[in-house]
Amino acid sequence: MKKFLYALSLSTLLATPLAGSANAAETVSILMEGVPDTEYVKALIPEFEKQTGIKVNIEVVNYAEMHTKLVPQLVAKKGSYSAIVVDFYWVGEFVKAGWMQPLDKRIADDKFDTTPYVPALMDLVGKVDGVTYMLPFYNYAMGLTYRTDLLADEKNKADFKAKYGSELTKPATWGDYLKQVEFFTKDGFNGVVNQGLRPDPIAMEWSNYLFANGGQFQDANWKATTNTEAGRAALSQYIQNINKYGPVGAASFGFDEAFNVMAQGKAYSYITYNFFRTSFDDKSKSSVVGKVEIMPVPGTAPGKSGSLNGAWGWAIPKSSPNPDAAWTFLKWVESFEIAKKRALAGGSPTRNDVFADADVLAKFPYAAALKDLLNQSHNFPTFTYTPQFVEVLGRELSLAVANQKTPEAALATVDKEFDELARKDGKLK
Amino acid sequence: MTTSVVNNAPNRIHVHDRRFGWLLTMPGLALLLLVIAFPVLWALFTSLFEYTLINPGFHTYVGAGNYAKALGDPEFLHSIRVTAMFVVAVVVLEFALGFLIALMLNDTERGKDLYYAILLCPLLMNPVVVGLIWRMFLHPSLGIVNYLLGRIGIPPVNWLGDVDVAFWTIVMVDIWHQVSFMIVLLLAGLAALPREPYEAARVDGASSLQCFWHITLPLMRPVIVVTLLIRMIFAVKTYDLVYIMTRGGPGVATDFISYFIYRSAFVGLDLGEASAMSGILLVIVLAMTAYLHRSMRAIS
What we know:
CATH architecture of the largest domain in chain B: Orthogonal Bundle
Strand content of chain B: under 5%
Number of domains of chain A: 2
Strand content of chain A: 5-15%
Helix content of chain B: over 70%
Distance between the termini of chain A: 70 Å
Number of strands of chain A: 10
Strand order of the largest sheet of chain A: 2-1-3-10-6
Oligomer: heterodimer
CATH topology of the largest domain in chain B: MetI-like fold
Order of helices and strands of chain B: HHHHHHHHHHHH
CATH architecture of the largest domain in chain A: 3-Layer(aba) Sandwich
Largest sheet of chain A: 5 strands, mixed
Structural class of chain A: alpha+beta
Shape of chain B: flat
Largest interface: A-B, 37 and 33 residues
CATH superfamily of the largest domain in chain B: MetI-like
Structural class of chain B: mainly alpha
Helix content of chain A: 40-55%
Number of helices of chain B: 12
CATH superfamily of the largest domain in chain A: Periplasmic binding protein-like II
Radius of gyration of chain A: 23 Å
Number of strands of chain B: 0
Number of helices of chain A: 20
Distance between the termini of chain B: 46 Å
């Protein structure tokens, strides 16, 4: 027994560092969110492993778990993730903390071309203060999904004209859209479904309402500006859409629940992430196949957009155990060939050349609309304390929706806490 | 001389036994210190500094600053109030229901094991799974609960999106999940009660209610106190259900203290303040434990 225990201890001591070094040399470990684009990457991994001999281990978790799991690994001198994916609103925090490696030297050495990326996405999840920390992975700019069959219905057209004196067509302005939401709410059918769960679902969705009304989160000096006429109108409209024109319970819906309501044909419209567009045509998930289209969230005037931009970027953490292998993977996964394969599988591109590709356009005719959506979208304020601000915004919006606060009081708190965070970050003097 | 040796022998053996006893418990105590005392002390130490994950390190000593900040935060105080309400609601309701079922099971002979197995099922489930299942069941337009209510003419209930309902929905789900815990402990207590007092009471013509009030309840008091204590401590730390089902909403209706502390630490990245909040929670739990422990001793 004694000999056995000695042998066990010795073998454990010897095996641990050896196993660690073997993994570090040959395995790229990445933490990713459980979304369609992750699945498209996973499906292509065998191709990479065959080409390079490097194993890839992708750990998939729920979005809410991502930040919690990442931070301890990023703080550590040597973490367990070779590469990471970074949501746009963590960028300020990760850069400030110095958790990501600059990629400029690797990009220059390998002549990796970053010019095909949509410029707005390079600004959001690529460069910070002129330094490239990330390569844009996929975009989730938000758009308005709506039922084309209901707009084409002759009776609906006649009824709408009789009620509002205008044609029932794809909404050109935010005002047109709000009329349609009201019009379609009848006989147990809902004009809209919202994702009112706090903190990020409600915060992200309401941002579209703010931009659609011509509002902004902050001015050029980083002074908060949500408690303005546009902001208050946006919040009043949001409360009305949830409580009057939406299904019961929308105040607690996450994006998956809201999507299901829309996909089961129970609502006319839903402002959501553009990667859901593909899912509306998936018979296994949707009963409205071929009846839903996407467009930029309409703004104050025709041609103006109220859409919120959003994206994830690939990065190599400073705590990466094998940054060179991680870079080999990043170069491969973001090459035109692989980016196109991901797009053809249903992914949300970040490169202009993929959006313009004939095969992609042939398979997804709405890819051009998605590109427009992306180029017209507004960015959420990104700074060191963006995650905290999303918490504050989500809490206050939820209080207003629950009629626990007036829109004015809720937005006054949002502005006050935004100013405090911006001041703490040195953005607001 | 002989007498002295004989008289001192038991003391020497006693001292030797005590030393040997300590020696035997040392590994266990060392392990306890390592896995329980060290993290608690570390957290209390951290709470005295401005320690953020963006700038980790004990650079700035703030004393009781983090405690003052936490206790001056109306949102944190609100989370304490909501948690207190939740603890009272679930402990009282689960105890009443659990005791009733335990009494029924105690008098049941046939199919007892089957009832027991069915009742234990929720307790064996992970709270995250419980939250996800109930979130699906309670979906206002696609969930089975509102569908069944609709079949008997009841309009859809906004289970998780209505400020006045969401809190009680969480209470209801927690009862479904945790009441078996009360049943198991109380049933074990009931099974261990002596039969003689009941037989004597029956001979004296006591009714079932009198037997319960004058025999069962007094004899069960220590078990009841321990059960309530354990359940209260678990209820104070409820996190999973809120995280999965409401994220503290709608508004701040279900913003429990554990979820609040989690956000301070992993969203706000402020470990100093989060540690201070955990320290406050520790004091609350210790106070509850001390109170119930004293009550139990008084009863004994």
